[in-house]
Amino acid sequence: DCHRENIKVLNGRISGILDFERSIAGHHEFDFKSILMPSKKNKLLQEEVLRGYESIKPLSKEFKERVKLYIIINCLGFLEAAHIHWEDDQDTIKKYLKIIDSQLD
To answer: The pTM is what?
Structure first.
């Protein structure tokens, strides 16, 4: 689950990406669902993480489509949380529905 809180930096360079909360066997693209969310503002961080990843392993032909799928699944989880825990917070619901819509292009 690659996002800022899980990225460790030493001397101005990424020294590790750590998180085992939802460790699963599957597509590598699952790891990019958070950092590549359209709502993320730090495009430079996104580019650097992708460049580092590609320096080790090429992206699959299905990379973009799979990331879109995992972003949608991630947003559905947030929508569930908005309903169950956040009293149907309309701003949160609108935000994640907009992101889902953007991934269906």
So the answer is: 0.69
